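dumping this here before i forget
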Amino acid sequence: MNVEVTPLPGIGVRKDFATRNGRRIGVVSKRDGQTDLIVSKADDPDACMASIPLTAEEAGALANLLGAPQLVAQLNEEHRDLPGINTKQLPIKANSPFDGRTLGDTALRTRTSVSVVAVMRAGQVHPSPTPDFTFTGGDLLVVVGTSEGLEAAAKILKSG
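structure:
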């Protein structure tokens, strides 16, 4: 996939790509920190068909929605031949008892035998987080373990 990066003098940077159906999808990262999700015509990337302003939190949530499923699908494929091993996405919600606390504070591995293999935050993947990794509301954890362990981990992250 070819992502084109175009400086927009006085505005910021546009990053977009052509889809199979002939449209261009991308983001405009503005100098003031704002982000717009854009849809343009394939033959004229400057002709914006739609522009949706996103807050930093909304942009991060969208990035997590798009990125985490790909990571989970890849891990599921790799674990396909390992019966009983599953991969799941677990959120850290703003009201979670672990918002602002570390992975070590959860004791997930000790309590459930589940491993946190990555954390998605604002579109960035943080692979193999260490026990001192601090969670933030909106994080999406990618975890691997048994079905029972994953259920227990979800309850812990929700209730403590």
